[in-house]
Amino acid sequence: MKYIDEYRDRESVQRLLGALRSNVTRPWTLMEICGGQTHAFLRFGLDALLPSDIELVHGPGCPVCVTPVEQIDRAVAIAGREGVIFTSFGDMLRVPGTRSDLFAVRARGGDVRVVYSPLDAVKLAQDHPERQVVFFAIGFETTAPANAMAAIAARARGLSNFSMLVSQVCVPPAMEAILASPRNRVQAFLAAGHVCAVMGYWQYHPIAARFHVPIAVTGFEPVDLMRGMHAVVTQLEAGQAKVDNAYGRVVSEAGNRPAQEAMAKVFEACDRQWRGIGMIPLSGLRLRPQFADLDAEARFDVGHVEANESSLCIAGEVLMGHKKPTDCPAFGRECTPTSPLGAPMVSAEGTCAAYFRYARPQE
Amino acid sequence: MSESPPDFEGYSCPLPLPPGDRVVLGHGSGGRLSRDLLTRLLLPALGTAAPRHLDDSAVLQFGSELLAFTTDSHVVSPLFFPGGDIGRLAVCGTVNDLAMVGARPMALTAGFVLEEGLEFGELGRILESMAQAAREAGVYIAAGDTKVVQRGAADKMFINTSGVGWVAPGQAISGAGAKPGDVVLLSGPIGDHGMAVLSAREDLGFETDLVSDVAPLNHMVHAMCEAGPVNALRDPTRGGLATALKEIADQSGVSIELHEKTIPVRPAVRAACELMGFDPLHVANEGKLVACVPAEASERVLEAMRASRYGEEACRIGEVGHGTRGRVTLQTAIGGTRLIDMLAGEMLPRIC
C-alpha cells in the first residue's frame, strides 16, 4: 500500500532506532497521547525494540475509555425507549455502564445501530420520520467536526426527530491535567497526530512553555512514532521544551480551518467528567444554545442517573500514565476483553486491550 | 484550566457487569465469546458423547471404520456477495469441516428456513449454486428439509448443512496433532471473504473489487495427505487465521511463531482493514486452510497445495515450537514481536 509501506519499512525503523540509541544518555519517560499510537507501538512490537532508558507510558486518548459512565447509563436508558433508533460508533456498544451496555440493550429488543459516519444517523432520521433517531456523539477533536456537521445537516434539513447525546472531549486540557498532577511522571509528549490534523498545534506552545515539556506532533506508523520519539528525546537531552511537528505530511500549524469552524459553530467548551479520572475543567464540548433543541439529554428526560464505579480496576491510573496495565492485579485474570472490568480493556484503542492482545506476559 | 488541579487520588473505575443473561451477537463471532458459550452452556448440556477434541468435525468409530460427521448453519447477509452466495457457502463450509479432519466428504443434508416473501428467482439461483458447489466437491445432497417462517422471523433464508465423510485408516487429522519442529503452511491470502461480504453490505459505502474465496478444499487436502503427513489442519473461518492457530496451539499444547512478512494479504484487504481498524488475522476466510506439517515433508506438501486450484498462492508462514503451550507470537515486519490471540467478541469498526 503506497503511503503506508514506506512508514513500516524495517530499514528506516532500524536507522531511527540507532539514532535514538546514540542520542539517549539517561532515562526518560514519554507519553503517547492517543490510544491509536499505543496500539501501533504494541501491534508492531516497537515498544520492545526501544532503548531501555526510554519508558513509554500510555495516555488517555481513547474516546471510549474516557466517556463517563453516567453518559453510557443515559445512552442505555434512551436506547431502550420505544420508538428510538439509537446510533453509535461500533466501539461504544461494548462499554459497560453501571448495569448494562448497548449490546445488551440490543439483545433485549432495543433498536441500536452501528453507524460509520454521523451523517448516516441524520439520513436514518430523514428516512424514518416516525422514529426518534439519537446519535451518541463521543470522541476527541477528531470526531467533533463530523459530529458538528451532523447537527448542521439535521438543522438544514429541518429534522425534528434527530438529536445527539454529546460527550465530546478535548486533548489539551487533559495534557495540562496530567502535567499538573502531583504524581506526574511524564517528561515529554507524543501529541496525537490526527487530533492535530484537525486542530493544528498552535494550542500546544503554551503547554510546552508553562510546564517546560517537549511535545512532538506524532503519527501512527512505526516510522512516524520513531520520528516523534527522536524529536522529543533530542529536546530532552538538550534541555529544550518546544513543539516539534514530526507528522508534517499530515499536520499543519493552523490545522483544518473549515473543520474548526464547524466545531465552533455547533459546540462550546464545558467542564467534563473523564471516566476513571474525574472532572477536568473546560475539557469538554457541548451543544451551543442555538443547537440546544438537538440535545438528547433534554429531549429524553432520563431523570437522575445513579452511576456506580468500583475501585477494583485502576483504569484512571493507567489513563494518567501512573501505572501500566500489567501493574493491575485484575489484568488478564478477572479483567479480559470478554469480561472487561474497565473501559480500557474494551476499546480497540484501550491501553489494557492493547496489552492483552499484543503483549500479555507469559501465562 | 483552573489554578487548583483536580484531585486524582482515589480514581474510580467501571464496575464489572453482572454475568450477561442473554445471547449477544459476539457469541456468534467464532472467537473467545463463542468458546465461552460452548464451554459454559452447550458442552455441559449436550457434550457427554462429544470427543475430547473440539475439531471441525466429530470422528466416530464404527467397528474398524471411521466416519466424520459435522453440521453448520449459514446465516450470511446479504445472500449474494462478490464471489459467492449463501448456497455455495453452505456446501463449502460443511465440505471443508469434513476435509479438516482428513475425511473424504461423501454426502450432505440441506435444511432450509425460508422467510415468507422470498423470491423464487433468488431461491432458484441459490439452489443452482449449491448444486454446482456439490458437483465440484464431489458430494451429493442426500436429504433435505424445508420450513417457512413468517416475514420478519428470519432474514430471507438460513441454510443448515450436515455432512458425513469417510476417514481412511490412520488418516484422521486433528487440531491436536501439531508437533514442535512442524512448519506452518497457509493456502493463500487471508481476509478475502470477510471483507468481500462487508463491502457488499449497503450501510458501509465502500467499494472494492474483492471477491470471496469461498471454495471446497477437500481435493487439496486429499493431495496434501498423499504428499506427506499432515499433523494438524484448520480452516480459518470466523475468527480468522489468528483464532485457528490459537486453537491449534491450545489443542496441541505447543507454541507457534509466525512471520508477518510471509503472511499474504491482498492490498485491497489490507486497505479496507486499515480503514475499519480490523486486523486481517481476525477476518473470516471460506476457502483457505492452515496446516502444520513435519519440516521434512513441508516442501512436498507445499508443492501439492500449489498444484491445487485453491492453493496456488500457498506459502510457509511460521513454525511450531517448544515455547509456552498455547502461545502464538508474530515477528512483525519491522522486527518486533507481538502476541496473537483469538478474536474477543464481535469485530467492531474503530471510532477515529
Describe the structure.
The complex is a heterodimer of chains A (363) and B (352). With 363 residues, chain A is α/β, with parallel strands linked by helices. Chain A is built from 15 helices and 12 strands. Chain A has helices at residues 10-23, 35-43, 63-66, 69-79, 102-107, 118-127, 144-156, 171-180, 193-199, 204-211, 222-238, 257-266, 296-299, 315-319, 351-358; strands at 28-34, 54-61, 84-88, 111-114, 132-139, 162-169, 188-192, 215-218, 243-245, 267-274, 278-287, 309-310. In chain A, the strands form 2 sheets. Chain A has a 6-stranded mixed sheet, sandwiched between helices. Chain A has a 5-stranded parallel sheet with strand order 2-1-7-8-9. In chain A, helix 6 (118-127) packs parallel to helix 7. The two termini of chain A are 36 Å apart. The relative contact order of chain A is 0.17. Chain B has helices at residues 32-46, 86-99, 120-137, 192-200, 218-227, 240-252, 267-276, 295-306; strands spanning 13-14, 58-62, 65-74, 80-81, 84-85, 104-115, 140-149, 157-167, 183-186, 232-234, 255-259, 290-293, 315-321, 328-331, 337-340. Chain B is built from 8 helices and 15 strands. The relative contact order of chain B is 0.16. With 352 residues, chain B is α+β, with helices and mostly antiparallel strands. In chain B, the strands form 3 sheets. Chain B has a 7-stranded mixed sheet with strand order 10-12-9-13-11-14-15. Chain B has a 5-stranded mixed sheet with strand order 2-3-8-6-7, covered by helices on one side. Chain B has a two-stranded antiparallel ribbon with strand order 4-5. Chain B has 2 domains: 53-167, PurM-like, N-terminal domain (60s Ribosomal Protein L30, Chain: A, 2-Layer Sandwich), CATH 3.30.1330.10; 183-340, Phosphoribosyl-aminoimidazole Synthetase, Chain A, domain 2 (Alpha-Beta Complex). The chains are: A alpha/beta (363), B alpha+beta (352). Chains A and B meet through helix 1, helix 2, helix 5, helix 8 and strand 11 of A and strand 1, helix 1, helix 7 and strand 15 of B.
